[in-house]
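user:
I keep going back and forth on a fold encoding question. Separate attempts, laid side by side, tell us more than any discussion would. Would you put together a sequence-and-structure record for a protein of your own picking? Write it directly below this note and I will take it from there.

assistant:
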Amino acid sequence: MDPLREEAIFNERHVKIICIGAGASGLCFAYKLQRSFRNYSLTIYEKNPEIGGTWFENRYPGCACDVPSHNYAYSFEPKHDWTSVYASSAEIKTYFQDFARKYGLRKFLRTLHVVRKAQWLEEDGKWEVEVHDLATGQVVRDSCHFLIHACGYLNKPAWPKLPGLDEYKGIKLHSADYDETVSLEEKKVILIGNGSSAAQILPAIQPIVKQVKIFIRSPLWLLPDISSGQRHFTPEEIRIFKNDPTATLELRKLNETTMNSIFSVYLRDSSLQAECRALLSSEMKKVLQDETMEKKLIPTFFVGCKRVVPSGLSYLKALLKDNVTMVHSGVASFTETGCTSEDGTFHSGEVIICATGFDTSYIPHYPIIGPNGRNMQDEWAKCLTSYMGVAVAEFPNMFTFLGPYSPVSNGPTLIAIEAQADYILHFLDRYQTTPTLQSVSPTRSAVSDFLSHTSHFMSTRSVWTDHCRSSHNNHSIGLRTPTTWPGSTLHYLEALREPRPDDWHFVHRGNRFDWLGPSGISQAEWDPTCDLAYYIRGADDGRWATWWRRNQVVSRSGSRPERKLHRQGKLTGTREVAEGKMGREEEDEEEGEVHEDHKAGGGVIIESGGGITA
């Protein structure tokens, strides 16, 4: 009797997957799953009526990405016809919609479906998921072998937790849930917040409002403007990018190389930190030209502790306009017609815009019940834990995108999402080709050691534990270890490239060697077109046996001229720029300019997380 196909080694069993969220992470996961796998089913539950995640939800005036537009794309999926140097949220949303359409990903989607609960069923080796269908009001119950959380962390508006907010009778808006139908023309506006969202909102609304009072609790670092900072590409530039993909590729590589060369700015005692601090202080002082203002608006904390704002001097200039009043205080309470600052002064306003960012506590919106009734909501409320941003100790067959300690501010973020997808798919493949494998999860000891390493790095080397409020510490100071990756994005890519089995707990039911199959037949023998002597060759082109050799291949070592390590002329500035000897026009064209190659139409920034500026 001839052997059966399913008796071959590494036979693939069916795997059922549920993914929560259809933003950049969920769509990347769906694409990569579809590209490599064949015996699976996937359902993506999305709470919004359309895909895009953060870029669907955020639509406040001036909302844009703080990464050059050509680089805010998947590494393998360039967009040649971006209209602006820094793309608007609407254009980025269109990019992801087009991506889903091109690769047929909408067949996996269930929009207007909100997950209410997820529970691990040990006997079944599955997750049971309770979902609310917002369109019909029905409760849907589903199950899966693997549960993927692609919810992101910038998805829950952080309204001020202050008395009287509900009593305010004017128009109340939030930067993360903005009502575009509201007209601000000739309105008296109160803008609360001095983060990156406020820095985009103020220059956008200042020309049309009657008056705006902005509450500034703490300062932030601003990168200088350039003439093309927020400009639109010309039709001719777009034509060149569309007709010559090499031009787009060169620009993307230039920008990416710059972003990946500046990580040492996040190290407290680095030369790049000192040089950037001196340059940014000098550029901000040129605009302010007032010692009192400089003390209030130029930070004393390290550059990078709080998100740095690109093209930020337009914000600084807006602060100095006649119809803008700065209130260097937090809000104490709200009333029916305005708010009261911490010094007891009342401020009236017809519209309040809370540019107060997001709840970055990472606590899930719904109960996630693991083995022994453990609720991840309760555990993370006490202490955030994560295995390198992708998994949680002893929560089986569950993975996260951009979980705590992912590289969200360390360099390009979309490539980190791609790396996380590849990492997760490694375990899906292991599960699918191992018939006795029931579950996999990181061990508690591995997570504990990872968190210990991260905490030590943050407290001794990084700028993120300096005296500032940021999304990494949930807008508090000193209450938790900053939740970004303890290294650069390139560092993260190398860390995630090859899973470390000793950090994981694998649970089997049956003989773990059943994956060999009962008939001793290889997969090659079931492929009528393969070369059955594939290992016979004229030279040794096999996989390298050491990690450093494999890394040389991946990183294309030797393909580029030598560079000066841990320096970046675009951030430190040339000597002439630093000494103020060049005119503005000359600076824009200078190769070592602070943040952009003007001729290429690109741009580079210090804070290159790739999310919205929050």
Observations:
- The domain at 13-155+360-508 is CATH 3.50.50.60 (FAD/NAD(P)-binding domain).
